[in-house]
Amino acid sequence: WMSDDEAHVCPLCSQKFTQIRRKHHCRQCGRVLCNKCCNEKVPLPQMGFEDPERICDYC
């Protein structure tokens, strides 16, 4: 799980985080990404999440 303080840019699109481009955690891999790259929501029952959770484009 990556700390918010460690993330300055989205690892997928390389865009800098700002007040408008906010940080989101992928519940699958734990990386911090922007909304554009971490917008999909799916259930992750293997991780104990029955309700849809946010995952990144990579996962």
TrEMBL record:
Pfam families: FYVE. It comes from Nematostella vectensis. This is FYVE-type domain-containing protein. Residues 4-59 form the FYVE-type domain. The lineage of its organism: Eukaryota, Metazoa, Cnidaria, Anthozoa, Hexacorallia. PROSITE patterns: ZF_FYVE. Keywords: Metal-binding, Zinc, Zinc-finger. GO terms for molecular function: zinc ion binding. InterPro entries: FYVE-type_Zinc_Finger, Znf_FYVE, Znf_FYVE-rel, Znf_FYVE_PHD, Znf_RING/FYVE/PHD.
